[in-house]
Amino acid sequence: MKDEDLLKDEKLEKVLSPHPLSFMKFQSLSIFLVIWGVLVLWIINASEWQIYFADNFLFSLSFWGIGLLLAGIVASLITVRWSIFILYACIFGSGTGFIFWLGLQDITGVFIPVYTIFISILGFILVEFYRRSHKYIISNQRLLFKGGIVTKRERSLRYENIVEFDSEQGILGQIFSFGTIIPQTPSGVGIGSDNVMAGGGIAIGGKKGKLFGIVGGGKEIQTPRTRSYYELHGIYPFKDVKQLLESYKRSTAPTTHHEEQVAFQKEQVDIQKQMRDLLKMQSESKEDAKEEGPEEKT
Amino acid sequence: MEGSHIDIVIFAPLAVILGVLLFWFIQLLIIEFEKYLLSKIRPNHEPLCRFTNFLGILFQSVCHALGYTITKSGISDFYISVNYGRVAPKREKTGIFEWISNAFLFIGPFFLPAVILLIYLFFSQVTFEVVTPSQLLEVKYTFAGQINTFGSSLYSFSSSFFNFFLNIDLFHPGQFGFMLLLIFLGMGMRPSYIGEKKQEKVDMFYDLKNIWSLIRHKPLYIIILFLISYILFYLSLIFNQNWYVALFSILGWLSIIAIVSLVVSTMILLLIKTTDEIPGKIKLLPYLSLPIFYVLMRVIFFYFPIENSNMISLAVMIISTILITCLLLRSKTNKFKSKRDIKSRKKKGETDEG
After folding, report:
1. Best of A22, A175, A176 to disrupt the B interface by mutation (most B CBs within 10 Å)?
2. Which of B21, B49, B188, B324 has the fewest beta carbons closer than 10 A?
3. B284 and B261 part of one domain
4. Chain B: which residues have CB within 8 Å of chain A?
5. For the segment B148-166, what is each residue's pLDDT rounded down to a tens digit?
6. CB A147 within 8 A of CB A229
């Protein structure tokens, strides 16, 4: 952060980036690809089942694809994100396309694992770029979130606008001392929602008449959640940063003593205003009396 | 029937119990050494120590939960973190049920995690010779006879297990997974937790104290357990079926797996502790030599196949790593006292000036 970006009396405290393991939910997709690639390499070329794959590239391709798609479905169901399934389907589709386009049917046993591992390495690189695009700046007056690979995002959040901090630390975070802090504002930034939907339909009846009914339901739970660009995602050292932020928030928040002082001062001002009005009224009545006095004499 | 009546009635059932206790004590000793190594490397490898703590707590919590499940207490709360684990029962049961649950917590982590590896071994192509019918015919229900049968059962298992273990193929995904599990098991197998605070002394005596308090708290239950063991032995004797030794042999097998996993993980910790003494990035060389030499040997043996190539590859990998570590220690540190120490250098300098 440049000096000219700093506000008046602003002091820079920390410039942070997410921990390399903090995006494990994305990295795990690549880790699975590496494991699956190695397994496919071994099963097709070195295991006792290799005879089933010899001279049958369609069998190898199907085996690889089914594994990928099944993993995609399971991961999507667990995380409630169909993007994982679509991603794996795209990898399978593009791999199949390459095999037919480049005429690699004879070396499928080598191409499929190499392609899978190559894609996983690409995935690791992309996640690393994404991680490095995050920058969190902590100053004595505000929190500054910067990020974005193509589109640059920036958000400045003053401590007095923060209602509370929500923090999260998984097992990896506990082992490597990193965690996520979500600052919540009165406007609702830092709050997301989990939606659970369920529906069902039933048709009863024969040829003459049918009875059709649909039952559905949904539930929404408000939960602390925001984009990684708007939270302190996977910051290290977690405990120190949390303490620092809490201390800054405490310093900006009015304490009970401050609130009492303000109320007392307000009361004082009210009394003074009343006194002023009384004095004004008194002086006005005196002036009126003076004006009326000489007239009576005459 | 050979042997005196006192030997058969009183001492013979104790033979296998003592055998299992001996194995368990060996486990305790290795765990103690492992804890010492972990405490030494803690300043430089805090995450690794936290990870081993997590594994330990995971094993303990799973064992405790298993104890509650077996006693039909149910599980209402299951929470694990890096330095804390909590398992709460649905129904608080007292007496023998509570005691069994606690026994699972204190003694379970020594044996139960090894069950996973034993199941893998049975499902893999490794064949084990359990106590054979011929041995059963020859079995003598005396102290020495029981020890002998127990020993031969363990010997047949050990020879199969070590044959598999020493010829393990690290290019085989299943066997590589077995090796990883074995290391994780060794890292986390401890009944107590190494606290974040240094002053908390959690050692072998602490573990033994826990178990001793479990025994002292309800001595009657221990007597009942001994009685059950004796009854089982007498039934084996009456029916001339060696169920008694077979049952304790399973505990022996689990102990052997646990001891091997503890030894492997201790070796890894020892390597970490030793390389910590080497300054600079060059200390990473022993870790690189492990996969490089293994892959190199496997590639060589792929083109020039010989017998026991897996075992030789493993041996070359280990020996080369030890040699490289020793060479680095010799060249980069004064660990072997091969360099002149500072005092003698100073003295030499003074005499030169004089």
Report:
1. A175
2. B21
3. no
4. 46-47, 50-51, 54, 81-83, 171-173
5. 888 888 898 899 899 999 9
6. yes
Both tokens of residue A182? 């979500």
**Tokens at A285, concatenated:** 């009545």
Q: Judge whether A90 and A96 are in contact, CB under 8 Å.
A: no
Domain C-terminal end among B269, B285, B313: B269
Highest mean pLDDT among A158-167, A208-217, B261-270: B261-270
**Nearest to B245, CA basis, from B155, B127, B165:** B155
Q: Does A46 touch chain B if contact means CB atoms closer than 8 Å?
A: yes
Residue B259 makes CB contacts below 8 A (sequence gap 6+) with B23, B26, B27, B30
Structural domain spans, chain A: 3-18+134-252, 24-132, 254-283
Q: How many CB pairs under 8 A join A and B?
A: 22
Are B55 and B34 spatial neighbours (Cβ–Cβ below 8 Å)? no
A176 near B CB under 8 A = yes
Element (H, E) at A273: helix A256-297
Cross-sheet strand order for the sheet of A232-235? A164-168, A179-184, A232-235
Task: Assess whether B169 and B204 both reside in one domain.
Answer: yes
One domain for residues B197 and B334: no
**What is the average per-residue pLDDT within A169-177?**
92
φ and ψ at A38, to 5 degrees? -65, -40
Distance from CA of A37 to the nearest CA of B (A): 11
Residue of A nearest to B174 (CA): A39
Q: Say how many domains are in chain B.
A: 2
Domain around B289: 277-353
Contact assignment for A174 to B50 by CB distance below 8 Å: yes
CATH number belonging to domain A3-18+134-252:
2.30.29
Q: Do B251 and B30 meet the contact criterion of CB atoms below 8 Å apart?
A: no
**Chain A residues with CB-CB distance to B173 below 8 A:** 38-39, 42
CB contact under 8 A, A171 and B54: yes
Amino acid at A23: F
Tokens of B251: 């505990």
Question: Of B243, B269, B295, which residue sits at a domain end?
Answer: B269
